[in-house]
Amino acid sequence: MPASRITQPLARDAMAYVLAGGRGSRLKELTDRRAKPAVFFGGKTRIIDFALSNALNSGIRRLGVATQYKAHSLIRHLQRGWNFLRPERNESFDILPASQRVSETQWYEGTADAVYQNIDIIESYNPEYMVVLAGDHIYKMDYELMLRQHVEAGADVTIGCLEVPRKDASAFGVMHVDQKDNIISFIEKPADPPGIPDKPDFALASMGIYVFRTRFLMEQLRRDADDPESSRDFGNDIIPHIVKNGKAVAHRFSKSCIRSSAESEAYWRDVGTIDAYWEANIDLTDVTPELDLYDRDWPIWTYSELKPPAKFVHDEDGRRGSAVSSLVAGDCIVSGATLRHSLIFAGARIHSYALLEGVVMLPDCHVGRSARLRRVILDHGVNIPEGLVVGEDPELDAKRFRVSEKGVCLITQPMIDRLEA
């Protein structure tokens, strides 16, 4: 369909389907009790809030979230924070656990199966388009622009892609495209990634974002379900089949990324490792961070609890409640402690003479007097004992806590309990 004939927003005829069942094993103990999309990020939100907010801000009013691995924390967050969509306004929000709907013995076998098992629910809403999303990345994107490209190109599938340096592209599924961004082949983690025709030193890496016409997608899912050799996965099975037998088009993230006046470059992060997670959170403490969470034109929706304001107390030499280049959420009390380049979620209690530098502190943590923490992630509800020092002796830290390749310490309450046993 030519662009001139698209007169109404396509997003209102679309359903966003978020795949949020990922284990996130590279985040180690952070995903012991929660799925990766439910991991806290940025001082107030969870990772999944970015994909859902993008859909909502793009004009999509039908949302579905497929959950599987350790889903209780995620489901509770979704029920509390995303329950404002109303059926009487032709809106919907469905949480879709792996509930063995197709077979009494079958959980979701792959990303495609996580959609296939809920075909009846999807078809009951009769959306014209499906936007299939990964629920574990940090970015801001207008899916309406991707939908328009899909319709204008007459594509069977449109795949969201990042432009990444060729030397880094081996970690991704890579699109080999022609001059018009038609996908010639899809290569999973190639040793020698194909370059982009107009940017030979860059490759197009899949973002795990797919747009289909709903009827076409349902046909492909049913065909795939009948194939005993399939792994029931979009990247391994559905997409390669369409590339070979249909029309697949690449959509470059740079065409639809959302940037405020404070953001100079397109921002996308996979915070799937301890180091990447720490860096993305700490980057938010910069004077002008690469990701603007203060952009009122593209808000990140989340569950917002009623909390008292943050409080900083004591004002004497060596015992002054202060935070420099830091983000501090509500219901935090910084009592005679010093924070630098740290990101503190709600409910923190940080006591006198403590020093925190480069600390990502998840909700409801307590830090005892005279503790010193550097380059640390504290999991939810950790109580740091008085005088504990972390981040100054790498060998000692490695014996007591989880230490990443770049020297970031992840601390959980069971680790603290073992110290005090």
TrEMBL record:
The record's catalysed reaction(s) read: alpha-D-glucose 1-phosphate + ATP + H(+) = ADP-alpha-D-glucose + diphosphate
Cite the record's note on assembly. Homotetramer.
Q: Where does alpha-D-glucose 1-phosphate bind?
A: Y108, G173, E188, K189, S206
Query: In which pathway does this enzyme or protein participate?
Result: Glycan biosynthesis; glycogen biosynthesis
**What keywords are assigned to this protein?**
ATP-binding, Carbohydrate metabolism, Glycogen biosynthesis, Glycogen metabolism, Nucleotide-binding, Nucleotidyltransferase, Transferase
Q: Does the keyword Ribonucleoprotein apply?
A: no
* Annotated site residues (Could play a key role in the communication between the regulatory and the substrate sites) in this chain: Q68, W107
Q: What is this protein called?
A: Glucose-1-phosphate adenylyltransferase
The organism encoding this protein is Borborobacter arsenicus
Q: Where is the Glucose-1-phosphate adenylyltransferase/Bifunctional protein GlmU-like C-terminal hexapeptide domain?
A: 308-411
Which family is annotated?
A: Belongs to the bacterial/plant glucose-1-phosphate adenylyltransferase family.
Q: Which residues form the Nucleotidyl transferase domain?
A: 17-285
Q: Is Cytoplasm one of the keywords?
A: no
Classification via Gene3D superfamilies: Hexapeptide repeat proteins (2.160.10.10), Spore Coat Polysaccharide Biosynthesis Protein SpsA, Chain A (3.90.550.10)
